[in-house]
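Researcher: Quick one. two chains, 536 residues in total.
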Amino acid sequence: MREIYADNAATTKLSPVVLEKMMPYLTEVYGNPSSLYGIGQEAKNAVETARANIAKNLGASNPNEIYFTSGGSESDNWALKGVCERLKSKGKKHIITTKFEHHAILHTCKALEKQGFEVTYLDVYEDGIVKPEDVEKAIREDTAIVSVMYANNEIGTIQPIAEIGKICRAHKVLFHTDAVQAAGYVKINVVEENIDLLSMTAHKIHGPKGCGLLYIRKGILINNLIEGGAQERNKRAGTENIAGIVGLDAALQIAVDTMEERCKKLCALRDKLIDGLLQIPKSRLNGSREKRLPSNVNMCFEGIEGESLLLRLEMNGISASSGSACTSGSLDPSHVLLAIGLPHEIAHGSTRMTFDESTTEEDIDYILEVVPKIVKLLRDMSPLWEKIKDK
Amino acid sequence: MAFTYSEKVMDHFANPRNVGEIENADGIGEVGNSKCGDIMKMYLKIEGNVLVDVKFKTFGCGAAIATSSMATELIKGKTIDEALKLTNKAVMEALDGLPPVKVHCSVLAEQAIKAAISDYYKKQGIDPTPIVGDIGDCDHCDHCE
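Model:
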């Protein structure tokens, strides 16, 4: 049976090239970068080389604006908590974000609400795109920070980051973006796009798990999240994850170098799959088709439930994901699909497939052969389908 | 996903028993709602006091389909009294357990049987309440709240 990994938005396979670059730092060069002897300094050099190269690839003006973290969730937590707690004393107590952020942002906002911050959750409309004018309208005197994700993790919609950045800069409000899904698929330039803080992680772009970064533009006042030693210029304690940092740099470099050709190929495969799946009656693509990550397909098939579809996909060798709740252990449908206005019963029937450069046209053909059969089988046993099929 | 389910659950999900409808069924029960993501519909053919045929249709997750399938197997050929004694716990045990978040699926299966038997009695002009008792109402279940 064909095996297809279609869950690259969840995580990716570590690139062998990246692993090779990491290996010395998992073996011989085990020194602590804070130590003064040879293997310590060698490790330190590796970290600083990676920092400088990553800064260049993100368009940052100074390598010291890159702070390594344990990944996207830590970076998101740090950006919001660090800025808000710092600006509280200046009377700032308002946060602007969107309804369909990752939980690393939404749950951090909930925690800050308990500390007295007010949060505006912006609409993302049917196409899953934030309106920059909504951001502008929501900005208040006491707004501490705006946080809008670069691309959504479930439906892959790409947000107008440069426009939002421009608005925030004009109003002198800090702008954070969670670029965990976008990095490696979209050209990012933090200076040109007026991004003040940016989160990203290695494991979504064929790097290792457990390493990410927070870009913090020079001059921004931010409290520490992790207290301890003097690492990361006193801003983020903990002995550096050298191999992870080297892996993050290598993975981002490959992603940047291959972006144009890879994304072109992915878009063609994605569009073929979307067109094919839309042939299924009462199916829909979730989120804008045009402003969409090249790797993301997210569909709903009315009258069936997402987990059943996923289990059947797995039985056919396809590893996909669902916005449906059942997989995440809660029974609520995806907050992202509800945010784009889907009713609960349709949101329950979603599936997300996310691809990478190893995906072939034959894989897509196979998915297109399998999915309609599964949808028919599940609909044939669905009492909901018999009610809605002729509507 | 799959690994959180027992082999029996996966077997009943992959090869559900008694799927479909019964024409001119003697009792039909539907429970659950699309908002919470599970709807079970149970069809009964009753001769004398015996459930000679049972069929189901389910919209829902793997556990919902597997519990429906197992429940139909457990009551097919049994008397009404025996079917009414089937608890959600018995369905779960027959499936070698369910993940905690899926326990409500087995409750739905129990309710679907009771709803179908109630429907049978109503069609006979008999008040089902003293016999079947309180079925429970999905709308008041706290799983969706």
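The interface with chain A takes residues 1-2, 10, 13-14, 16, 19-20, 30, 34-41, 57-65, 101-102, 104, 143-144 of chain B (CB under 8 Å).
Researcher: Thanks, that's what I needed.
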